[in-house]
Design brief:
The chain is an alpha/beta fold. It contains ten helices and 16 strands. The radius of gyration is 18 Å and the shape is globular.
Length: 288
């Protein structure tokens, strides 16, 4: 942000249900030279109202001069398309088994959604750039496990491309896919992809938007904060299961590799991004 934006200007676009507008300056100072990686997933991908609020939040962060990088999922949309085509898919520890037919569907759906996000941001005069396996691919992958098929683990991230986009005050929007050494596309769990991006950029925050309030303990009580050791123990005790496994693994890995804090936030709640960034209470479970 070249010039500091006045409170009067902020009032014009600040949502009513967002945190206290008078405290914004403190948080803008905290994050102004930092990077924030946001993974959007869950209901945000299929509920038009939540999608619109998500776009609004990203635009607001951009207007306030904060640097965001978006990584999106696409699970519900992929499932819907597979159902239409009558293609069955199974999951192993929260990861979709992906064969040749399924990877084609995955790639088509994710690229289409990737372009939708970019178009929605550009319409709000928030310049953003599409990054996917067909355009500016930045993720090199190795296959995860043979039984998962075309599911990859990020091996290398080309952060130069991402930084070039950021330097132009534009927002990189990444589909969670990568190419192997033969340029074949691989699906990547969106949380894992976002974690790899956040690690490579040494981002201050990684926000994982999902369909739950955060991480629950064994009594189903929401935990506002967790240490890495507590998170590891919860996985050992199988308090964390299913789709939460890649999320928690990503959190632990990101923090061990330079990300200051990872937050699992509820994407079903309006303005959860603003509530996380611009308040001490936050939104969801912070792991640091």
């Amino acid at each position: 942000m070249e010039k500091e934006i006045s409170l009067e200007e902020v009032k014009k676009f600040w949502p009513q249900s967002a945190p206290n507008i008078n405290k914004i300056k403190k948080y803008v100072e905290k994050y102004k030279n930092e990077k924030i990686v946001i993974k959007c997933g869950g209901n945000v991908l299929i509920d038009p109202k939540l999608f619109s609020i998500f776009i609004e939040d990203v635009v607001i962060l951009n207007k306030l001069g904060l640097t965001t990088i978006i990584v999106h999922g696409g699970g519900p949309r992929i499932q819907s398309k597979l159902d239409k085509l009558n293609l069955q898919s199974t999951f192993i520890k929260g990861l979709r088994v992906t064969d040749k037919k399924i990877i084609k569907v995955v790639e088509d759906v994710l690229i289409e959604f990737n372009k939708e996000i970019v178009l929605a941001l550009n319409k709000k005069s928030c310049k953003s750039v599409s990054i996917n396996t067909k355009n500016k691919n930045v993720i090199d992958v190795t296959p995860e496990k043979k039984e998962l098929g075309y599911v990859g683990i990020p091996k290398n991230i080309n952060i130069e491309i991402i930084n070039e986009i950021i330097d132009k005050n534009e927002i990189p929007v990444l589909a969670p896919m990568g190419l192997d050494n033969e340029s074949k596309p691989y699906n990547i769990n969106a949380d894992i992809a976002a974690g790899a991006i956040a690690k490579s950029l040494k981002s201050r925050r990684l926000l994982l938007m999902t369909n739950v309030e955060g991480v629950y303990d064994k009594n189903k009580k929401l935990l506002p904060e967790l240490s890495v050791n507590q998170a590891i123990q919860m996985m050992k005790d199988e308090v964390v299961v299913g789709g939460m496994i890649p999320k928690i693994s990503t959190c632990i890995d990101a923090i061990k590799n330079g990300v200051r804090g990872v937050v699992i936030i509820d994407g079903r709640k309006p303005h959860s991004i603003l509530n996380e960034i611009f308040s001490d209470l936050g939104a969801g479970t912070l792991i640091r």
